[in-house]
Amino acid sequence: MSNESVVDVKNLTVGYGDIVVLQNISFSVSSGEIFVILGGSGCGKSTLLKHMIGLYTPFRGDVLIFGESMVNSSEDEKRRLMRRFGVTYQGGALFGSLTVAENIALPLEEYTTKTPAEINEVVQQKLAVVNLDGFGNYMPSELSGGMRKRAGLARAMALDPTLLFFDEPSAGLDPITSAELDRLILRLREELGTTIVIVSHELDSIFTVADRAILLDKDTKGIAATGKPKELRDSSPNLWVREFLSRSKLKRDM
Amino acid sequence: MGSPARELVEKIGIASASVFRDMIEMVCFVGDLSKVSWRVLRKPSQLRWKETLYYMDMCGSQAVPIVLMICFLMGVILGFQAAVQMRKFGTELYVADLVGFSILKELGPLMVAMIATGRAGSAFAAEIGTMKVNDEISALETMGFAPSRFLVIPKLLAMVIVSPVLTVFGDVIGIVGGFVVGTTMLGLPLMAYYNRTVEVLYPMVFLLGMVKSVVFALIIAVIGCLRGFQAECNAQGVGRATTSAVVTSIFLIVIADAVLTIIFSLMGY
């Protein structure tokens, strides 16, 4: 793992309207790292992600992706930058009017000069990566929630990005599907060296996949802790952090 | 000053501010759309033909039966109402004038626009609103696409192409409706009614109706899409967006109709 940072969040202040959700946040994600943004409901982790991927403009601060600013670049530069990373949304966010294969083919048709046959080959390969061989001709509405998420991941990977963002990958999935997705995430990093940023609150999956995590605190509107999830759970000086990360353990003890 | 009066002033103020904000958003949306349209015009390969054809089918061919039905009945009603009045003066033949002019200049484009608002405008808002709820709009953006190129341009183009065509159908069948009343109820000779219609109508009347139908089509597509993009991210939000798309479209269509009618009459038509 090199130390070259892929994502740099610098003094970011974000919110909606007049409400500040997070204040003065700074962190960076290194190349090849699996980085998790943690936090309770309503602490602004999804908001933070949406600012990182350029959907919203922050109040203050900057987000650098591959060293280029998401905040201070023009619309066109931003669009060009966005093509270099993939985003997997909570519900998959597949386009309902297109089949799964057409969904995956869309960025390839628009951004590459590949022939239809070559595109089809890439589509089949991506479907195989997410274990959805044979589902190319299905409409998104015919798939289950977990399959839709995986299809969304296949689409996010269509242009072979070296950086992937996941919004709540395990939310709403059963434990087995969720574990499968975790393995898939680990495999992606292993085989392709992809840098992965995940927003989540599923503790089981975090301990499995995360190299490093930040824990967002609703009250201070900042980062409560940074580090390896296991180390944070066992030896963080902050009691709230330890409690947050070991809640499921407490439940089992009861 | 009493507090109810103050409350009233405050309410008016808040309402005006929200109308003003809405207008600004509308202008921004149209501005952004013009930019994207210009790009697509310069590079037509960027146009999503498949979607455009889909919407042409949805807003055009599938609307033909209802357009024919409504416009025919409008012609019949118009002819009937005119006949009742004109019979008193023994000027039955002028029913042809009234029906012809009203349908071509006004009711043809207007009825087609009303039908399209209900069918297409509401569908556009619901579709884009639902896509927003499902993060599909966000996905388009983070894939580096301008959402309006995918979601608005095809709808806009489809509407602008099919609306005048539908209006032609509506015009013809509307005049036929008047003709049916004229020849059956008033007992006018077939040829007399036909000759009178052909005699009084001139191409410009038809063209003005076409201009109106294009303007109405633009309003329906733009407002439908805008309301979809503005939808709040829940089921009720999509419902409200759809309602608002229809109400705003009808309102703006009537305003545009009035403005165009004044302009055309100032031009001497």
Number of strand segments of chain B: 0
Helix/strand order of chain B = HHHHHHHHHH
- The helical percent of chain A reads 25-40%
Q: Structural class, judged by helices and strands of chain B?
A: mainly alpha
The total count of helices of chain B amounts to 10
Oligomer: heterodimer
- Succession of helices and strands of chain A: EEEHEEHEHHHEHEHEEHH
- The 3D shape of chain A can be described as globular
Morphology call of chain B? globular
Characterise this structure.
The complex is a heterodimer of chains A (254) and B (269). With 254 residues, chain A is α/β, with parallel strands linked by helices. Chain A is built from nine helices and ten strands. Chain A has helices spanning 45-52, 75-82, 100-111, 116-129, 145-156, 175-192, 203-209, 229-235, 239-253; strands at 5-16, 19-30, 34-39, 60-65, 68-69, 85-88, 163-167, 195-200, 212-217, 222-227. Chain A has a six-stranded mixed beta sheet, sandwiched between helices. The model of chain A has no long low-confidence stretch (mean pLDDT 88). Chain B has ten helices and no strands. Chain B has helices at residues 3-42, 49-59, 64-89, 94-133, 136-142, 147-151, 153-184, 190-200, 203-230, 235-266. In chain B, helix 2 runs parallel beside helix 7 and helix 4 (94-133) runs antiparallel to helix 10. At the A-B interface, helix 2 and helix 3 of A face helix 5 of B.
List the keywords:
heterodimer; A: 254 residues; alpha/beta; four-stranded antiparallel sheet; 9 helices; B: 269 residues; mainly alpha; 10 helices; 0% strand
Helices and strands, with pairings:
The complex is a heterodimer of chains A (254) and B (269).
Chain A: E1 5-16, E2 19-30, E3 34-39, H1 45-52, E4 60-65, E5 68-69, H2 75-82, E6 85-88, H3 100-111, H4 116-129, H5 145-156, E7 163-167, H6 175-192, E8 195-200, H7 203-209, E9 212-217, E10 222-227, H8 229-235, H9 239-253
Parallel strand pairs in A: 3-8, 3-9, 6-7, 7-8
Antiparallel strand pairs in A: 1-2, 1-4, 4-5, 9-10
Helix pairs in contact in A: 3-4, 3-5, 8-9
Chain B: H1 3-42, H2 49-59, H3 64-89, H4 94-133, H5 136-142, H6 147-151, H7 153-184, H8 190-200, H9 203-230, H10 235-266
Helix pairs in contact in B: 2-7, 3-4, 3-7, 4-7, 4-8, 4-9, 4-10, 7-9, 9-10
